[in-house]
Fold each of these.
Amino acid sequence: SNIIKTYNNFVWGLFSGSTIGSTMRVIGIYIQETGGGAGTKQQVYYNTVYLQNRTAYGSMLPGSILNSANVQCSNTCFKIGTTSGPVMDVRNNCFANFTPAQTGVSKHYCWNTSATSSIGTSGSVSNYNDLFIADTANGRIGLANATDKKTLTNWQGVASNDANSVSVDPVFLS
């Protein structure tokens, strides 16, 4: 079997000037079918994805980015773009979305999966993750196919083996 590892990444500073709300425009980590064939496993461990409007970064960003529009498009920290691909093993990650309230149909998520009732094929696991949404007006913990999962409890119905994940502000300090 093939094992593909995505681990120890810190993803931040992602922006888009798009105002199209119906399509996901900003994605922190995107896992798609790899072409590895039967038995492929995706291990996604110890990653941090921090999505926030550009004003929160202050002087850490170049002026061209800092002066751009806030994120008004739909976005997610983590996305699985396949329903029949590899076994997903997603553990010990921090997916924190601090995008403030948006206008129109735009929403922001921690996790997005193409499946309706699972995070991947049989044997997939999600556990010990921190899935945090700061603004709950347009923010959701997850999106399962086209169904919003507003709370961690709702999300755990999709990721049925996710008993030890939390939804706690990770309190990033600079």
Amino acid sequence: VNSLTTDAGGTLEINTAAITTTAAQSYGEPVTLTHSALTTLTGHTITFSDTLDGPQGLIVVDAGATTFVGAVGATITAPGVTNTLASLDVTSANGTVFNGAKVYTSGAQSYASAVQVGDSTTFAGSDLSFAQTLTGLTHDVTLNSQGLTRLSGDVSVNSLTTDAGGTLEINTAA
């Protein structure tokens, strides 16, 4: 498939192990991952214009830039039911942008490329790994992990807060 675009009406359930395009993928409505295992999205410029959730994990391999406009994880789907994304692993040639206020997973989060926040953002998961820069000059970033939080690139945000649990590892020059 060359490209994939969904409209902004309703909701979208992704119930497959992989979606591969040679060009862009654009999801206009709330997306829920319902496949029984990890889902892998491969393309060039992958955009989630609304929330992303589901009980499974997501791997994104993007030859362009990946953008998450809404919250990732922890959507309340029914009274007392939270639908937290299992894990998130993103590799984007031109970086990853988060414009939602939260990125929550029950498992690990891993970002192999630069991450930029366009809003004050909380990342929460069992382990958090930022292999390159983490930026958002006028925005606050909170990193909550009971496991390992690893910052391997320069960090340039308004303020950075980590929780008391887990281990913080900083491998950056600035």
Amino acid sequence: LDASADKIGIGTSAPATKLDVYGHLNLRDSYNLTWGGEYGANIPTIVAVSGASAYLAIYPAGSTSGEKFRITNDGKVGIWSTVPGGYLSVEGTGNHRGVFVTVTGATTYSAIQAEANALTTGSIARFSSSSATTNARYLVNIINSNAAATAAVGLRIQQDSTAPALIALGNVGI
């Protein structure tokens, strides 16, 4: 305890901050780590639950915002999802972008890259919509709005086998 500097040290005689813990810190199950007070409205909170269904969750504005981020005991991450369906699940409601990637200044690397080197069934990427609305709806929309990119390839499909590289079903306009 350094009363002159208003600091408490646990495991150290020279605390560097208001509370300085040198060693392990144990919060009992069902206790939260909060900023600005006890869990409640507008109090950022990290919740950790131990046991067979252990998880770590973040409530950015406490009870006001609800849970926005979760890491499950099997390593899955959910954003706006309390039950992630994959290693990374991003869910949302209303007119929000699920995943938005902006890469500034990159000249040689992919903004998004997916590899499935041992895939035997299924898809590397799957786009699905069950909306009945057909006006101005695209499952894949490729836009290059830079006028100088006249020789740019908008879509490239390459298949290194004798199987078809592209199969189009239904009404297709090209």
